[in-house]
Amino acid sequence: MLQKIDEIREQFQSELKAVSNNEELEALRIRFLGRKGSIASAFSLMQEVPAEQRPKFGQTLNVLKKEAEAQYEALKSKLLKPKQNKNQLDLTLPGRKMATGGKHPLLAVADEIKAVFTSLGFTIEDGPEIETDFYNFEALNIPKSHPARDMQDTLYITEDIVLRTHTSPVQIRVMERQKPPIRMIAPGRVYRRDTPDASHSPFFHQVEGLVVGEGVSFADLKGVIQAFAHRMFGKDIKVRFRPSFFPFTEPSAEYDFSCVFCRGKGCNVCKGTGWMEISGSGMVHPKVFEAAGVDSEKYTGYAFGMGIDRIAMLKYGINDIRLFFENDLRFLSQF
Amino acid sequence: MKITYNWLKEYIDVDLTPQALADKLTNVGFEVEELIPLLQPFSGVVVGKVESVSKHPDANKLSLCTVNDGAETFQVICGAANVAEGQIVPFAKVGARLPGDFKIKKAKIRGVESFGMICSKEELGLEKKSEGIWPFEQAEPLGTDVFEMLNRNPDYIYDFFITPNRPDCLNLIGIAREVSAITGKPLKMPEVTIQEDTSAEIADFIKVHIHDTEGCQRYAARVIRNVTIAPSPEWMQQRLEAVGIRPINNIVDITNYVLMETGQPLHAFDLKEIRGKEIHVRASRPGEKFTTLDDKERSLPENTVMICDAERAVAIGGIMGGQNSEVSPATTDILLESAYFKPTRIAFAGKKLGLSSEASQRFERGADPNNVLNALNRAASLMAELAGGHLVHGIDDVYPKEIKPARVPFDPEKINRLLGTSFSRQEIKEKLTRLQLNVANDYVEAPTFRVDLKINVDLAEEVARLVNLTNLPTNETTEINYEIPQPEIEQRINFVRQKMLEMNLQEAFSASMLKQSEAALFQNGELISILNPISDDLTTMRPSLLPGLLRAVNHNINRNMTDVRLFEIGRIFTNYRENNLPDQPYSLAMIQTGNRQPEDWGNVSVPVDFYDIKGYLENFVSKIALDNFAFILYDKSSYFMSTETVALLVKDTVIGFCGRVEPEVCAAFGIEQAVYAFELNLDALSGLINYQRHYQPISRFPYSERDMALVLDDEIPAADILNEIRKHGGKLLKHLAVFDVFKGDSIPEGKKSIAIRLRFQSLDRTLSDKEVDKVFRNIIKRMENTFNASLRN
Ligand SMILES: [Zn+2]
To answer: How far is the CA of A239 from the centre of ligand 1 (A)?
Structure first.
């Protein structure tokens, strides 16, 4: 009689292999596992089995039933997700990449700086990169004989037309055009007669700041620079002012930020001092007001500058300024 | 400008550490760029005695010595010619470390062992170049550590950055004056004792005449006789070397020493070379030439102040002496000059001559006319003391018009307003007095050495720096005006840039100076050249953004990144005008080369062509909502291919070009693959961009589509066909698309098939087929009439 059970098993196995859809599977279930199916029928043969073989027969039949049920369930769940059966997607393949783009890192930093200052109520002004000697020097209290011209190695187009050496000429252009109060920054490209190397470029980028009004003081300048430092690099950044000299401001001051890498503790970048030199600032010189036609008895003002390239280099940890202008895609795509 | 800590202490008592002093001076505006110990550290060098010297058995120039360090005797090989028995010397034992991280080891030289080294000053870092070892002049106890011995009174070198407005601090007394203002300690001026030989009168030796009274406002002379030219004393040489001045001889060193001490440049002439017992100060003559003491013949710029004797020029005033009258070992009598020259005259001549000296740097920034005699007497007394000279009685001091201290208007109230402070008048006065300024009621008398003090704000700076800028108040709030109109240009550039970024393009940023030959390829009007370029690669301002972008393409292709899409916004430069600024409009350019999408398993590589770049430009134009624009065929560009270029036209103005870059131009940049680009003049777009958007209602009714496939002459531009359809489509025609263009096979020679899909839709109703067909049939008829088109199939 056990032979009968083996026959049912073989039959079930071969019919199971032929099943290709849910309907066929259901038919198979009815034929073998249904109330009147062949396995149920086999149990009814129990009486015909000699008593001593009955336990063994029952046991074997139960094993077959469990086996068949398990195989039925497995196939059923497979058929329910038909796509996983054939043409299975390899979801681990890399996705399809479209070419991407983005801002140039230097201009992204310029955007950040602009955003800070616009939120402080500044306008964003612009001026020509090729300037007259008057706007670049004379009006900024740097006459031809002034020793400060030594500090600026200038590229000339003609004797009186220069590649601007700073963004300060925009100050004059704006003051000529507009009555105080003025709160402006002017970001842009400037030029110096420097041979290119890792830390010098014959062109680089500055932001000029100018605020003119009644009662504007050095204390206001300090406040704005401090606000910028905190917004750009964090609340814990300290600001330090040191006296300096610029022909177009009096008093003049260099300003430093505590090192953004070590937060003032001292590291390689700041050469252990805990400070980083940022740029210059000061109160607008009365002669500059005169040149731009602003009443220096009535108004006072402050001006400041900062290097965008330098801030971007600090921010991203870049140590070669030339990387900004090579437009290497491996560089640009990092930002 | 360099000074040393110990030298400074001759003029003021300092109880600050060298670093603390550096910080204080930096805080008042004298930035210390470097602070280093005078002695470079070394160790293991002791005082030794040379007990015996004999020849090295196998080398002529080497000596075999024994050196006693007080405890033991060592065998040492020495290469110096001046080594001698009995000398007391610095002896570097085995294991010593000398400056430059040089370690002394046991050595075998030509077969003989050597245990240590007898040192020269050079080897101990005490001078740049030594001749032979250094025998001590005084007997020191053997075994004494030489570094400790030399460093009993350690000294430090400060290197200052002195801003050009403060020439008064280009010397030790000037710095001491600032230290005095910081610490309140009094200044100690050097004592000058003048012992004159009353048997000789200055007038018997020299008579000074100033003809150029504009260039030379004071000229004072003394005569010192019977000097012995010799090296100056060790202490003076050490100080001069420490501050970067090469010692020459006692007379020249004294003039340099007094220059560093007082800031007053002096010049010593050999009196016997001054002809006719006369000095004439005059302006140079046209074509005049002169040989300076560095043996160079120089053509003198016009209006250079010249110092002359009765026959010839002997010095360029305030800049450099002449070869014909310089002090030599044979000199016995000195004519010592102390003068004041007008800063602008010295600056101009120095610049034209390309000459800059310690003297000219001080004169051109402004020396002190009233310090002329102090410095002259100080130097003369040193010449008597150190060179055995006799001072002739009297000074020939020609000073036609005395330069008086400037009166600077003084308004404490304004100072407070400018600084945001509230100091009392007394507090401000106290600070200014510390700086040796005389404070009167409404003015301050500024000594003649303070050339920077002219107006009230200059006094504000003095107050601010003595208070310390960081300690001044900081305003953390301010009243600001809400009405802040942003300039249109910033809005325009930002808007355009934003639209380019929205198309998923990478922004580039490139150089604005180019090689002339590169710039010439993009010439649109006259090129702008730089008068004094840095190099041949950076001579010309870019007339277009394309050369920069082509360089970027080349850079990336050379590094195996062959798919490049970049855009850039920046100024371009053309059209020089006499005494006027050139055109420098903002430009927008995009460049594309290689495959449309990166190559990978899921993308088929398709190389870009003209329609890719045109597609970008069309998208851009649509994003900035340009009205009344048209693309026209353009074949006149020198850098775009005539067969693959269009111009963007707005209201009859060409705004820019779009197409394939001329392969020859690409080749000039080392690029072989096809490159497509567009460039637009953003200044010309000013006023044409529509920043405002108005919502266009979207129809809730279904649309109807009709396709037409036209066969017509190949020459008829697609734009003409589409324009004609739009013209006759009326309000119901919502959308047009070319979905196939086809030539050959069943299409006759010289013809093309163009398939167009038209979408009709109304805002207020569902269109009937009849309605749509009527419009559609009319369009077809127009196609047949206007273009002689026939319908395909
Ligand atoms: Zn740091």
So the answer is: 14
Q: Which residues pair with B49 in a beta bridge?
A: B68, B88
| Mean pLDDT score across all residues of chain B | 93
Note the CATH architecture for domain B406-466: 2-Layer Sandwich (3.30)
Is some CB atom of chain B closer than 8 A to the CB atom of A50? no
Element (H, E) at B221: strand B216-225
β-pairing, B196-201 vs B390-393, is parallel
More confident residue, B693 or B706: B706
What distance in Å separates residue B519's CA from the closest CA in chain A?
16
CB distance A219–B474 less than 8 Å? yes
Question: Are residues B476 and A242, on separate chains, in Cβ contact within 8 Å?
Answer: no
Q: Determine the average pLDDT of the residues in A27-49.
A: 84
Q: Do A250 and B601 touch (CB under 8 A)?
A: no
What are the tokens at A143? Answer: 């006459």
Contact A126 B490 (CB under 8 A): yes
CATH for B2-38+155-183?
A: 3.30.56.10
Which band of pLDDT confidence, cut at 50, 70 and 90, is reported for residue A255? very high
What DSSP designation does B346 have? H
Using an 8 Å CB-CB cutoff, list chain A residues near B513: 202-203
CATH of domain B196-398: 3.50.40.10
Ligand 1 center to residue A189 CA distance, Å?
Answer: 28
Which residues are CB-neighbours of A127 under 8 A, at least 6 positions away? A135, A164, A167, A169, A170, A173, A186, A188
State in words which class domain B704-791 has.
Answer: alpha beta
Distance CA A313, CA A296 (A): 38
Buried b (16+ CB within 10 A) or exposed e, B386-423: bbebbbbbbbbbbbeeeeebbebebbbebbbbbbbbeb
Give the H/E segment covering residue B778. helix B769-787
Q: Which residue's entry shows tokens 């006094």?
A: B459
Interchain pair B474, A226: CB under 8 A:
yes
* Contact status, residue B657 vs residue B674, Cβ threshold 8 Å: no
| Residues A208, A302: Cα–Cα separation, whole Å | 11
Is the predicted pLDDT of residue B13 greater than 80, yes or no? Answer: yes
Please name the residues between 226 and 285 in chain A that touch chain B, using a CB distance below 8 Å.
226-227, 239-245, 250-254, 283, 285
CA of B480 to the centre of ligand 1 (A): 35
- Domain ranges in chain B are 2-38+155-183, 43-150, 196-398, 406-466, 488-681, 704-791
pTM of the shown model: 0.83
Does the pLDDT of residue A83 top 60, yes or no?
A: no
Q: Would you say B77 and B118 are in contact if contact means Cβ atoms under 8 Å apart? A: no
- Which residue, chain included where needed, has tokens 């003369």? B380
As assigned by CATH, the class of the B43-150 domain is: mainly beta
Residues from chain B that touch A329, judged by Cβ atoms under 8 A, are: 506, 556, 561, 564
Residues 6+ apart with CB under 8 A from A62: none
B172-198: pLDDT as tens digits: 999 999 999 999 999 999 999 999 988
Q: Which chain A residues are closer than 8 Å to B460 by Cβ? A: 250-251, 283
The 3-state secondary structure of B733-766 reads EEEEEEEEEECCCCCCCCEEEEEEEEEECCCCCC
Long-range contacts for A107-111 (Cβ within 8 Å, ≥24 apart)? A107/B507, A107/B509, A108/A335, A109/A308, A109/A311, A109/A312, A109/A315, A110/A187, A110/A205, A110/A207, A110/A308
Q: What is the DSSP string of B55-81?
A: EETTEEEEEEEEEE-SS-EEEEEE--T
Fold match, B2-38+155-183 / B406-466 = yes
- CB atoms near residue B10 (< 10 Å): 14
Q: Kindly identify which residue of chain B lies nearest to residue A97, measuring between CA atoms.
A: B598
The amino acid that residue B606 corresponds to is V
CATH code of the domain occupying B488-681? 3.30.930.10
Question: Looking at the predicted complex, does its ipTM rise above 0.90?
Answer: no
